[in-house]
Amino acid sequence: MLNYIWFFLIAIALIVGVGRDISDEIYNPYRNGIPLEITFISTHVPAGSITRIEGYLYLTAKQFADFYGLNKESTEVRQPVVISFLSNGKGSFLISCSDSTPTKWKEMSKSASAKEQLSGRVEQFEFSDDEGWAKATIVFESIHFVKLKAITQAAIDFAAIAVEISLGLIGVMALWLGLIKIAEEAGLVKLLTRMLAPITKRLFPDVPSDHPAIGAIIMNTAANMLGLGNAATPIGLKAMEELNKLNPKLGTATNAMITFLAINTGGLILIPATAIAVRAAAGSANPGIIIGTSIFGAGCATVAGVLASKILQRLPLYKQEMPTQQKKGETGNG
Amino acid sequence: MAEFFRSFINLISILAIPLMIIVFIGWGFIKKVRVYEVFVEGAKDGFNTAIRIIPYLVAMLFAIGIFRASGAMEVLVTIIAPVTSLIGMPPESLTMALMRPLSGSGSLGIMTELMKTHGPDSFIGILTSTMYGSSETTFYVLAVYFGAVNIKRTRHAVPVGLIADITGMLAAVFICRILFGN
Fold first, then answer.
1. At what angle do helices B157-180 and B91-99 cross, to 10 degrees?
2. Partners of residue A137 on adjacent β-strands
3. Domain range for A53
4. For residue B7, which of A116, A216, B54, B64 sits 20 to 30 Å off, Cα-Cα?
5. Are residues A306 and A191 part of one domain?
6. In angstroms, how far is CA B142 from the centroid of its own chain?
7. DSSP string covering A105-148, please?
8. Could you read off the pLDDT of A97-133 as tens digits, one per residue?
9. Is residue A1 part of a domain?
10. Are strands A91-96 and A77-85 parallel, antiparallel or unpaired?
């Protein structure tokens, strides 16, 4: 199933990406090669021969919307710009993007040759009498293959992010594995598993109820519910390693692992701290109002996940992949 | 009452880790465990586990990354929105429902954006933040947890995760419509 979903994500991404780029070539939403008339308001005009002037590029909301064929309301555009002139009277311009840059231009700057900058040719430039402003005609650098460039960038970026996340785990992983090892040797984990045995026996019938895996599963679930992600992941991975010791067919997921993941991905959390923080930052009158609804949602998800794992593991399709499903207390045929 | 519950859980969350450290090590010391040696013995596996995850996480995040970058999400939303609007799920929240299992940072971005445009106390604001709190980033969890033990054949794990996600999202719509819908 993961093979199909993985392939689906990649195939859809490429099909949509190519499709959007082809439609861009046809409809030219970035107005490649089409001259745009702007008003230039100068702030700094050097004396003598003018080779480089700084100022603002100004467009009314209507001019901007008409040029790009936007039907959404846009605001007037006022962007700092630097214009350099060559000896033959032609020139080039450079706009550095900032927060006030229109969304359209920000999009364009992402696949322009210089990141976060827009550049192009100045076709015509005519100062007013007092040299305070000028009428200019500019043509932006042509923008092509926006989506394919974005896909390439994302592929490289996310590969790097994956390694960052994994390496970032080393420290907390070592910390929690060390602490749990002490707790195991001290008999604390056994104590914990014995207390919750009535529940865990039903959820994980294939795992002996005093197995270290059960202890890690309990601690992982508790840490998740308290929103302690830094502790939950290392302990959860420890649980997976312990469950894998009971795995008769290495490389294939056991029923117990899938039930454990169902509890984990249900995401039952008592205080959804991230969502509350975002709500508070957005100025909510009652950021915590979603606590109850979230617990309800996650509770339903967890119950559905556990039930689904119990039902689906009986299907012949999934059963045959784990032919020697371990019996209670056995470790299978190794 | 809700306020009390919240501060109570907050207190436990803050105390939990220091308490665990003290109890684990203290109890071990009383039970005459050679705490330092045992800690180091356990901790040395941390490196290998983290390294084992890398190929799984690269495979997963790269696929999700290019999916997000391509703008395929908007296409998917346009296709599915007519169906989900029948049960009263706004298209904005559908984006959230589709992104939540794929990407934690992506869904956080969508939630923040929707709060800004619709307001945190609007129906969409409450619904999307409930959705965010009702689920985990399923595919990330699958990659990391199975990666740690080198599991490639995931059997029914993906259908189970998706059933849980869909249930969570539908439950969020259901409860929000009852409590906050008009």
1. 150
2. A37, A124
3. 31-142
4. A216
5. yes
6. 11
7. HHHHHHTSSSTTEEEEEEEEEEE-TTSSEEEEEEEEPP---HHH
8. 888 888 888 888 888 877 788 889 888 888 877 777 8
9. no
10. antiparallel
Specify whether A296 is located in the same domain as A191: yes
- Does position A331 have pLDDT exceeding 50, yes or no? no
Last residue of a domain, one of A83, A115, A142: A142
- DSSP conformation class of A205: T
Do A137 and A205 lie in one domain? The reply is no
What's the gap in Å between the CA of B11 and the closest CA on chain A? 10
Residue A61 belongs to some domain of the structure: yes
Instruction: Judge if pTM exceeds 0.95.
Output: no
**How many Cβ pairs within 8 Å bridge chains A and B?**
385
Q: How far apart are CA B58 and CA B43, in angstroms?
A: 24
A81: β partners: A55, A95
Q: Are residues A192 and A314 in the same domain?
A: yes
Which tokens in the block code for residue B99?
């992104």
Of the residues A15, A148, A237, the best mutation for testing chain B's interface (the one with the most B CB atoms within 10 Å of its CB) is A237
On the 0-12 / 13-18 / 19+ scale of CB atoms within 10 A, B58 is buried
Q: What are phi and psi of A265, to 5 degrees?
A: -80, -15
- Apex A262 CA angle, A261 and A266, nearest 5: 110
Total count of domains within chain A: 2
Domain identity same for A201 and A294: yes
Nearest CA to CA, how far is A271 from chain B (Å)?
Answer: 7
Q: Which residues of A287-302 are buried (b: 16+ CB within 10 A; e: fewer)?
A: bbbbbebbbbbbbbbb
- At A222-261, the pLDDT tens digits run 999 888 888 899 999 999 999 999 999 999 999 999 999 9
CA distances from A179 to A188, A220, A227, B14, B145 (A): 11, 14, 19, 18, 20
What's the ipTM? Answer: 0.92
Last residue of a domain, one of A142, A171, A199: A142
For the residues of A93-115, what is the DSSP string, one character each? EEEE--TTS-HHHHHHHHTSSST
Task: Note whether residue A167 is domain-resident.
Answer: no
Q: Does residue A152 lie within any of the structural domains?
A: no
Q: Are B152 and A236 a contacting pair at CB < 8 A?
A: no
